[in-house]
Amino acid sequence: MNFMKYTFSTLFCLVLLLTGCKSSRTAATPEDLASAKIIESHYATHFDFETLAARLKVRYKDEHTSQGVSVSLRMEKDKTIWMSASILGISLAKAKITPDHVQYYEKINGTYFDGDFKLLSDLLGTKLDFKQVQALLLGQPIFDLTKGGYSAIAGQQNYLIVPKKQRALFNLFFYLDAQRLTMQQQRLEQKDMDRELTVSYSDYKAQEVGILPEQVLVRAKEGDKITEIDLEYRNVEVNKEVSFPFEIPSGYKEIEL
C-alpha cells in the first residue's frame, strides 16, 4: 500500500461523506434563537488568518498498515493548501489544492493526479469544494451552520448541534465544548450500512488570530474495518510570507479515476 496516496485520498473521501446536508428555514422560536446564539459564539472562535505554515506529525493506521510521516503544511486562506510529506528527511509526496485545481504526486510508485474538485465530486456523486477541505483541517464545521435548521442541546460538558430534521441517508452530529464553544467532534452515522465517520479535535491553543486545534483525529469505520488518521500540529506560524512550489516530475504515471 502507498501510505501517502491513501492518506490524501482518505481525507478527500471523509470530507465528501460529510457534505450534501442542506438545512431548511422555518419560523424562528425562542429555542431557535438560543441555538443561533450558541452557533454564532462558536464561529467567533474560528482561526482567522491570511497565511499559515506548520509542521504536522501524521499517523495513519488501518487493518494492514501503521505508519507515521512528517508533513509540511502551508495555507493561504480560501486560496491554496500545500502539503509536502517526508520520512527521515526524505521527500515522499506533495499535494497542492486550490479552489479550481487538485494536484498530487508520490515518489515511491511514480504516480500523480492532476484534476479538479468537479472530477472528484463526480467520482463520488456529491459536491466537494476547497473550503470544506480547509474547514476539516482547522476544526471548523464542514458546512455552514448559521443558515438555520439546527438545534443546540445542552449537556454537562458540551453542546450537541443537530439538524432539526436528519437526512434520510445519514445522521449528523456536532459537539461543541461547553466552555470555549470550540468544535470537539463532527460525527456522521449510516447505521443501515454500518458506517461511521468521526472527526475529533483537541488541545486547542490560542493563536494571535484565533484558536487552532493541535490534534485532529479522523476515524472512519465500515463494518469491521477501521481507518484512522491522526494529525498533530507543530510549529505553527501565521501571516508570514509563504510559497507553494509544485511541479509534477516528468515520467510519472497519471492516476486514472
Q: What Rg, in angstroms, do the CA atoms define?
A: 19 Å
User: Would you report the number of β strands?
Assistant: 14
Would you identify the regions where 5 or more consecutive residues have pLDDT less than 50? 1-10, 12-28
Summing up helix and strand content along with how strands pair, one would put the structural category as alpha+beta
CATH homolog superfamily: Lipoprotein localisation LolA/LolB/LppX
Task: Based on the coordinates given, report the CATH architecture.
Answer: Clam
Question: Overview of this structure, please?
Answer:
This protein has 257 residues and is an alpha+beta fold. It has a single domain (3-254), classed as outer membrane lipoprotein receptor (LolB), chain A. The protein has 4 helices and 14 strands.
Break the fold down into its secondary structure elements and pairings:
Layout: H1 3-18, H2 30-44, E1 51-61, E2 66-76, E3 80-87, E4 90-98, E5 101-106, E6 111-115, H3 117-124, H4 130-138, E7 150-154, E8 158-163, E9 171-177, E10 183-190, E11 195-207, E12 210-222, E13 225-238, E14 253-254
Parallel strand pairs: 6-14
Antiparallel strand pairs: 1-2, 1-13, 2-3, 3-4, 4-5, 5-6, 7-8, 8-9, 9-10, 10-11, 11-12, 12-13
Q: Care to give the gist of this entry?
A:
By secondary structure, the protein is an alpha+beta fold.
Task: Based on the model shown, name its key terms.
single chain, about 260 residues, alpha+beta, outer membrane lipoprotein receptor (LolB), chain A, 14-stranded mixed beta sheet, 4 helices, disordered N terminus
